[in-house]
Amino acid sequence: MRLYGQVASVNDGGSKSPAVGHQYQAAAREGHIPQRKFEVQALQEDFNILREVLQEVHIGLHRYASKATMDSLFTRSYSSIKAPMTETDFFKIVNRVVTSIRDEHTFALPSREYWDNQIGQTVYYHSGSKSGSPLFPFFIKIIDNRLFIDNNLSNDLSLNRGTEILQINDLSSRQILETLLPTIHTNGFIETFRRRNLEQFSLHQTYNRFMVHYAIFIGRPDTFRLKVRKYGDTAAVSVDVPALTSKEIFNNYWRRYSTVNDPKKTRENPFEFALLDHQTAYLRLSDFHNYVWLKYNYSPSTEFRAIFDLIRERSIQNLIIDLRGNEGGNLRIGVELLKYLTKQDFRPYNYHEVKNYRFPDVRQYFSDSTALKDYPDELFILQKDGTYRSDAEYETEEWSRPMQRDPKAYQHNLYVLINGATGSAASILATLIRVNRKDAIFIGEESGGDMEGPVSGTGTDITLPNTKIRVDIPFVKRVVNLNGYEPLKGRGILPDYTVAPSLDDFAGNKDTELEFTISLIKSNPD
Predict the structure, then answer these.
(1) Which residues have CB under 8 Å from 273's CB, separation 6+?
(2) Fewest 10 Å CB contacts: which of 35, 74, 302, 404?
(3) 69-86: pLDDT as tens digits
(4) Using CB atoms within 10 A of its CB, is residue 452 exposed (0-12), middle (13-18) or buried (19+)?
(5) How many Å apart are CA 86 and CA 34, to the nearest integer?
């Protein structure tokens, strides 16, 4: 494999602090007390604010669940607040509500005080958190509804990659997955998104959801009694593994793993281009966030122009684009690539849709209302149903108008690798390739984003005034131009070839999907 270089929105809020929250705020300054219980009045107030903001702001509130269904869930959840609760217990109610919306960009986080004192940063960097609370010290992999160890971050080095976790304390792996998977937000009815997000698919994930959700929704023992079957063995054994703090987990990861023994380290770089042979090129794009590309001093327009000049020069007949583990970011990076792939001009979006764009009744609850983007009235057209749609002729709506492909765009065989962690902007790019290059072949598993487009657009994140639980609430529906393609409602791209690693592939760090694609190309030399 010849490498050609790893040639590689707006947050809003204003918070309201009623008297019932004052006692907690004073306590928080002295240090978080996880056993502290909030009075019913404070919890009910927080819940009513959450409901009011969701109903006022979220354009996709009833996209996958009817109004009657959501109203019933709101009523039942409110009625369950009958006695004082800890933040964790109330968080479970909030999380159940926001995950029921089935939107990738709508999710809840514990309070900042809880996070700093009970979680800390567990993956990419150590934030200096003072958290001394115990966490599960492994990254996991889900294969065929079974749990396996990915990275061993514990102090017991005998548990190698591919070790199957049969039981943790009193729960089987099946029971654990049945408990944790529903707590992960997803798009529509896409289950692959939940599975990949329970794993550590990327070093750019801000936290490890298995560790955090296990602590919140199952428990946080000081010691984990594991029943495991080590890779290569037939017999199961029991082993006691002490829990570790986020700092200890962070240090163990960065001491033990390199690009040689952990593919996540290789994919930390968001961009890679390689010539696999004289006929086939490989382009990996594992992140679309601007700050990641800037870290490596990459310019999308410059890099893509150089790549496709080389592809033309070498008369490359097969191009593999790898979008696995790309959770999104700036779609402009993807659109820049799309110009070199389509066979005709294209239009990314039909329009944007919002319930409102001023939010006068609930703006006071946003975490930083001064950061909310002020959209001009000329941008939106009021619809009969009371929502607003963007005007394609408005100057900033360039992606709702036709865009020109590169005159020398690539026209030959195109293969796209996707998985459940292909989300948000990366999933939109994959969709635009699917509908504009119908000859492209998709390999892997169902992508993580709804083909019709996400609800995104930050600016309405809220912090509940009493518990300080944080909720990210998007408000802009991106309606993708599907170019006549009719997708299944609430589903991502279904691959032409469903390919997933076996246990042996995973344990041996084999890139199953890429190797399958290379074999497919070789079997179809034309």
Answers:
(1) 3, 4, 5, 6, 7, 281, 282, 283, 284, 303, 307
(2) 35
(3) 999 999 999 999 999 999
(4) buried
(5) 7
